[in-house]
Fold this sequence. Notes:
- By secondary structure, the protein is mainly alpha-helical.
- It is built from 3 helices and 8 strands.
- The chain has helices at residues 89-127, 137-242, 256-408, and strands spanning 20-21, 25-26, 46-48, 53-55, 69-73, 76-80, 433-434, 441-442.
- A two-stranded antiparallel ribbon has the order 1-2.
- It is flat.
- It holds the Pfam family Filament.
Amino acid sequence: EHGGSRGGGTGSGGSRGGGARGGGGCTWGFIGGSCKVPYMSRAKSVSVCSSGIRSHVPSSCILSSARPINCYLDGSYCRYNEAVFSSNGKETMQLLNDHLASYLEKVKSLEKENADLECKIREWQECQIPLVCTDFSSCYSTIEELQQQVLICNARAENARLHLDIDNIKEASDDFSLKYEYEQGLCQSAEADISSLHRFLDDLTLCKTDLETELESLTEELLCLRKNHEEEATPLQHQLGDCINVELDTAPSCDLNKVLEDIRCQYETLIEKKQCEVENWYHTQMEELNKEVISDKEQLQGCQNEIIQLKHTVQALEIDLQTQHSLVDAPLSCCSTLTDTETRYSHQLSDLQCLISNMEAQLAELRSNIQHQNSEYKVLLDVKSQLDCEISAYRRLLDEEGCKACHTSHTSFPPCRGVPLPLPCPGTAPGRWRCSIPACLCVPPKTSPSTHRDT
């Protein structure tokens, strides 16, 4: 209806159908359809293409744009266009109400069909033979027991496997510990052998050095002996050369070869004799030299020990000498440190005395200033007391004049109520407020307005 009436119905499905809303907007609703056009303001026309029916709406429901709106109504395609609606709203509402009635009838028929189907299903279920449910509780208990047994068997097998693994690991660890101990023993024995070999190597190096020194000494002795032998052999050769006897016998000639052979034999025997003598002398000399070398070695070892002892003694004596020097130098250093300390503390004492004298002078000055300020304070206090007396007298006079003025103007002015100030005025008595009327002091608001006090 034009002007603001609402038309519509409510179906069993919970949807609402509406007609035109008065003024500048329309609300459309359909049951069973998939379209809702909310508040189509200023719509011009609507066209239901499936039914071929054209309806008109009021001129107030006119769309501002000519954009078409598509929707589906109960499976039928609808298109709202700007050239469909006319100014007859009653016919449009009648059409929509007819559609709503048809949809409601369809819904009712579907509900009835659903109820019939439910009755048929219920009757069929009642006609069917009820099935007897087998009780599987015993089977379930058996299954649970079997499952528990399986779990127990699996746990036992796992436990046995773990025990076997633990035993194997223990055996392997024992084997490894034995191997470790064996290898550790081998390592210790090897270290002991290495240490003994190091000691043996040190001994060998010492023996080598000793033998090298002996070899050098023996070579020197051999050179000396050869030189002595040459020196002793040369005069002997000269003596032998001078003592050659040459005998000539002009007798019948003799065999020169035999003579030469005899001479050769004589010289060979002489050479052998001399060689034996030289060898014996050489051996005796070598034995004597070896004895001397051994004795010299012993003496050298003793000398080395004495040198070491003397070195230790020298070190101890040097330490004693240093301690004696330190003891000798200690008094001198103590005297020097004492003099330095005395001079330092004398300087500090002089500085402190100067500071004390300065502080005493400042203290005397402060005392004089304090006395001067005290005298000035007393003078100012006397002046303040005089001023307080004058102010109190002046206030008393003002209060008297104000009270007289209040008594004279009581008929023309209302009773005065004091206004409290945020800060009290100097000289104002406690509990009083300054009044808006000049030269008037009133009582606090809690007291009666007719009561007046004098200071």
